[in-house]
Amino acid sequence: MVYDVTKFMEDHPGGDEVLLSSTGQDATDDFEDVGHSDSAREMMAGYCIGDIDASTVPKKTKYKAPQQPHYNQDKTSEFIIKILQFLVPLAILGVAFGIRLYTKST
Ligand code: HEM
């Protein structure tokens, strides 16, 4: 059922804010949770303006996790870079020592 409570907002004993917070959606649980009296239910019937056309209610869709971007699983290049980071300074050091030894002996 659809209810138009615009004229009832200020008169609602529970205040207009709670009504506003439940507009545009299924407020059945909100209404029932308060434990409204029978007279409140009768009152509510007076604000009914129609029923919901079930064909316009969007179907609940199952949540689909977004596709994860495909990361490069091949770690070979990373491994080579790590080895080079270690080997290149060693090679430079070796060349430096070599030059030093060579220049000393001559
Ligand atoms: C057309 C719809 C509604 C009508 C006619 C209505 C009517 C009433 C009435 C007559 C009362 C006084 C207590 C009683 O007699 O039960 C009341 C209290 C209250 N209503 Fe509503 N109500 C409506 C919708 C809602 C909705 C959708 C909510 C929640 C989002 C709500 C929340 C409350 C609250 C919090 C109180 C105060 C309860 C208390 O202080 O004990 N009402 N309402």
Descriptive notes:
The chain crosses the membrane at residues 79-102. It holds the Pfam family Cyt-b5. Belongs to the cytochrome b5 family. With 106 residues, the chain is mainly α. The protein has two domains: 2-56, Flavocytochrome B2, Chain A, domain 1; 76-106. The protein is 48% helix and 5% strand. It contains four helices and two strands, in the order βαααβα. The chain has helices spanning 16-21, 28-34, 38-45, 76-105; strands spanning 2-3, 48-50. It has a two-stranded antiparallel sheet. The radius of gyration is 38 Å and the shape is rod-shaped. The N and C termini lie far apart (103 Å). Bound molecules: protoporphyrin IX containing FE.
Main features:
single chain, 106 residues, mainly alpha, Flavocytochrome B2, Chain A, domain 1, 2 strands, 48% helix, binds protoporphyrin IX containing FE
Give the strand content: under 5%
SSE class? mainly alpha
CATH C-level class of the largest domain: Alpha Beta
What are the low-pLDDT stretches, counting only 5+ consecutive residues below 50?
Answer: none
Taken together, the total number of domains comes to 2
Instruction: Report the sheet with the most strands, covering strand number, pairing sense and barrel closure.
Output: 2 strands, antiparallel
Outline: rod-shaped
* Total number of strands: 2
CATH architecture of the largest domain: Roll
Distance between the termini: 103 Å
